[in-house]
Amino acid sequence: MGDMFRSEQMALCQLYIQPEAAYASIAELGESGCVQFRDLNEQVNSFQRKYVNEVRRCDDMERRLRYVENELRKDDINMPELSPEEEPGAPNPREIIDLEAQLEKTENELREMSVNGASLNANFRHMQELKSVLENTEGFFSDHEAINLDSNRITDPNDPTQAGAQRGQLAFVAGVIKLERFFSFERMLWRISRGNIFLRRNDISGLSEDDESGHPVLKTVFVAFFQGEQLKQRIKKVCAGYHADVYPCPSSHAERVEMIKDVNTRLEDLKMVLNQSADHRSRVLSSAAKHLARWSVMVKKMKAIYHILNYFNPDVTGKCLIGEGWVPNRDLTTVQQALARGSKLSESSIPAFMNVISTNEQPPTFTRTNKFTSGFQNLVDSYGMASYREVNPALYTCIIFPFLFAVMFGDLGHGLILVLFALSLIIKEKQLASIKAEIFQIFFSGRYIILLMGLFSMYTGLLYNDVFSKSMNIFGSGWQNQYNTSTVTDETLNYLTMRPKTSSFKTYPLGVDPVWQLADNKIIFLNTFKMKLSIIVGVIHMSFGVCLSVVNFIHYRKYASIFLEFVPQILFLLLLFGYMVFMMFFKWVVYNDTSTQELSPGCAPSILILFINMMLFGHQKPLDGCKEYMFEGQELLQQIFVILVVLCIPWMLLGKPLYIMSKRPKQPTLPAPNQTPAPPAGGHGGHGGEDETTGELFILQAIHTIEYVLSTISHTASYLRLWALSLAHAQLSEVLWNMIFSKGFIFNNYIGAVAIFLLFGAWAALTVGILVLIEGLSAFLHTLRLHWVEFMSKFYEGAGYAFEPFSFKVLLSDNGEE
Length: 818
Known about the structure:
By secondary structure, the chain is an alpha+beta fold.
């Protein structure tokens, strides 16, 4: 688990590495993941750094890898993933040249095949379209002979032997165009010819590949008949504008048949060449797919190493590279061993070494976690990264968070659903870890949080005696019926009162007695119980948060803050709301049905009224035979508490600023009489800056004091959400049972079995969807609010920054998520 109480101690280290051993040493440090390097060349442009050419080479290799990967996606070839055992290390400089040559060869071969394949596919497509033109225009020429106005022979304008045809002859242009463009194309031809063009078309069956996008589209064959050379040029320009392909088409039937045979022969040849090209491309891509994952990892590691080396500074002689970085104290030995391995691998004559240097900078915050504690640590870090060596709330969140969730989500059945879901994620975590869906990853990363929330919900559900809105009679009820049969069966009596003095003979051993499930005042009883329970839990939670501030004061050696901040804060909290909690327990213990009239439940004073009268120094006349207060001397005690609470406010407001002012150095002694004092800088008096600092100090402390006083009241009321959500969850569960599932039990024959089967499906779906998912998410968010605001604000500053070491593991996992 590591040290979860507070973040680890960090050391700022200087690394001295020989240039020939720098690459191997940084590679070893990347594998260990223990150093967060600092950029010592922040003022240097990225393009002026020492290893910029090596980074560019890596960028070029990454570009080649992306191209090969895109080609694999086009052909739906899966790239096998590497297991952690198969993951290669960073390539040594000698291997980089071979890797670069291999990538260049693969890319050039694929690009050449892509260009040739595109040319072959274009030729094949044009041959297919030419074949469609020859086949689909068969009926156009025989039908057109009756339309030939001059009774002249139809000529082909593409035939050079007929270029000198007479002006009156009827010429034609044949081609293929997208069907969606044909109608606009037809209108354009009619306009440019003023209606002197005769256009025929015949749709091509099936889908054809589009030249521009490569997607399948519908195309049609057209033939435009016209007269005159000038009109022919206009038609060809329109065809070019509409991206229509024009093909030669003889008017003679015999010539068309002969041409179709020639086209079919060429199509068969192209098919054979295309198949051979596809086989060769598949072999090249399959071979590349086997190595692409390794190549990608090697290039990423190599680029990261050179990127870190650009953080280093050469010394004056240029024979040594100097770098700085933060290292956890526990990992200093690991870093030294990594440097030694790097020097040994590069066969350097001078070993690399490391020095720990002192600094006044705030180190990064690093807390070691495992797969169980990482989820809770992420919840805390989402609020703000802890300051260096500050108390870590995640240690306590591991238990407090699921408990507060369970107070609102207290149902043994619903908690069991959460436990089963979390256990399924935990048992199959190795298979499920590879799923990259973002929503699923949120649940998967918090599987242990869900497990504890479910277990605690089962515990509180057992205390509430609530299982899908039903109770369990495990230990036998502690209540007994004191009425005879005639009284119970009397229809004129709607309610029967069971006094604890006569009807209760024992205390239910664990949780709520199941008899309350049958009581008409169940909601009133549970409402009061859960409301007071939420206040008790809230005061304990906030008091614990205030006490944790003492641990921070002791660690940072701010011992005066214990008396100036902690003592007035804890007194303010406990004298008000701690006293309220005491009155709750006192009322539960003292007032009962077996006591005298003064201590009977009817004479028990309202705690809320007592608390209000305490703050206002007011009184309320008690009932006859009852007392206003719970015990003797309570009025005086409450007056003392209020006076102390009022005194705590100036204590918090003035104590710390006055103490800081008293610790400031004294003003310098006045100059000798024969010396002329120097004029104050800026013309605002000698104490202008100091007065401003003092003013800021008082203003800041006033803000903190007002915030704490007001937040103590509002935060205590905020814990009532524990009561509200718990009551709402229980009532909604009961509504689902009574409105849906219980309807199936009204039948006594086989229809009831069918009804129960159908209603159970609806009830189960609504239970999981509404009560577990939606209500669970609501309770989770409210619990998060109670931790972030009500608890952590009492002691947690959260002004640090995270420790982000140079680690190949983190680098590759981040790239995988992107």
